[in-house]
Write a structure and sequence with these properties.
Structural class of chain B: alpha+beta
CATH topology of chain A: Thiol Ester Dehydrase, Chain A
Helix content of chain B: 10-25%
Number of domains of chain A: 1
Oligomer: heterodimer
Order of helices and strands of chain B: EEHHHHEEEE
Strand content of chain B: 25-35%
Distance between the termini of chain A: 22 Å
Structural class of chain A: mainly beta
Strand content of chain A: 35-45%
Radius of gyration of chain B: 18 Å
Shape of chain A: elongated
Number of domains of chain B: 1
Largest sheet of chain B: 6 strands, antiparallel
CATH superfamily of chain A: Hotdog Thioesterase
CATH architecture of chain B: Roll
Distance between the termini of chain B: 13 Å
CATH superfamily of chain B: Hotdog Thioesterase
CATH topology of chain B: Thiol Ester Dehydrase, Chain A
Largest sheet of chain A: 5 strands, antiparallel
Largest interface: A-B, 41 and 42 residues
CATH architecture of chain A: Roll
Shape of chain B: elongated
Number of strands of chain B: 6
Number of helices of chain B: 4
Radius of gyration of chain A: 16 Å
Chain lengths: 139, 153
């Protein structure tokens, strides 16, 4: 497990219309703001897509031993600007705190998303714990 | 916020989102990676029962990020698209959402006050399942247009 002061490798991803629509169907939110170009620009990227792609599990360097899983326990999210379809997003993942509680490890990761114009989109501070392997399961 | 969606919202206002069903397929779409890639859906605790059990979980479950997505939809519908510029959540995930569970995002406005030339709202937010059990609880904050970004809300 990475410790405070370490970072997972950054992730870059392009959001196409089709990619965005995949997540609209996943969360059953087919609002036109996510599918239509307006005066403000191309369709918005659904927040659910941005959230799931800023989970540390999406980092190219994220790794867990077989039989282990990461579980999200808390999330502080601050929205800064809508993401737009057609843009490439970069997510950085900094481990800002690690601790143990009742025999279970916790890791707080700050993920920041900016687009390819350096526009800040979303910042998250997410607390994860781990289950399986040497750690107790969660029923 | 760039619109007046929230102009008539006062303390005590309650908002209820559409009830969503975390079906097996939607969970694959959400947590399985890109459907056009080889090996889709990627195996993890959300997409694969055996993986979940091997990791010490009783069953597959829907991602917490999915619940945050449901809540974001409710906030944008309630407060307007400005939420995506000035909105913030603090969420705690307190109960697993199983495959097939029906989840509804809810909010209750706890405070409304003038912030600069705009308005700041704070709300209790939560998601509850088909049994009425809360699965996510937390707070939301948003500021209307005219208030300086980052000011206390």
């Amino acid at each position: 497990m990475l410790m405070k002061g370490e970072a997972f490798e950054a992730l870059e991803f392009l959001v196409t219309e089709e990619f965005n629509e995949n997540y609209l169907h996943a969360v059953e939110d087919l609002h036109p703001r996510y599918m239509q170009t307006t005066e403000a620009g191309p369709p918005m990227v659904h927040a659910a897509l941005l959230i799931v792609f800023s989970n540390h599990t999406r980092s190219p360097s994220f790794h867990l031993d077989p039989g282990m899983a990461a579980i999200q326990t808390h999330d502080d999210l601050a929205y800064e600007n809508p993401g737009r379809v057609g843009r490439t997003f970069r997510v950085t993942f900094d481990v800002i705190e690690t601790y143990e509680k009742r025999g279970r490890p916790y890791q707080v990761v700050e993920a920041s998303i900016v687009d390819d114009r350096s526009t800040p989109v979303l910042t998250r501070r997410t607390t994860y714990t781990y289950t399986g392997g040497p750690y107790p399961g969660i029923s | 916020m760039t619109d007046d969606t929230a102009a008539n919202i006062d303390e005590g206002y309650e908002a209820r989102g559409a009830t969503k069903t975390a079906t097996s397929y939607r969970t694959w779409l959400f947590s399985g990676g890109w459907p056009r890639m080889d090996g889709w859906p990627a195996k993890n605790v959300h997409t694969d029962l055996e993986f979940a059990r091997d990791s010490g979980l009783a069953a597959r479950n829907a991602s917490g990020a999915m619940m945050a997505g449901y809540l974001t939809e409710l906030m944008v519908d309630t407060f307007g698209e400005g939420w995506l510029r000035n909105g913030a959540f603090s969420l705690k995930f307190i109960r697993a959402v199983g495959i097939g569970d029906r989840v509804t995002a809810m909010a209750r406005v706890a405070s409304k006050r003038v912030v600069g030339s705009g308005t700041g709202f704070e709300a209790e937010v939560w998601c509850e399942n088909q049994d009425g059990d809360k699965v996510v609880v937390g707070t939301a904050r948003v500021q209307t247009a005219g208030s300086p970004k980052g000011a206390p809300g």
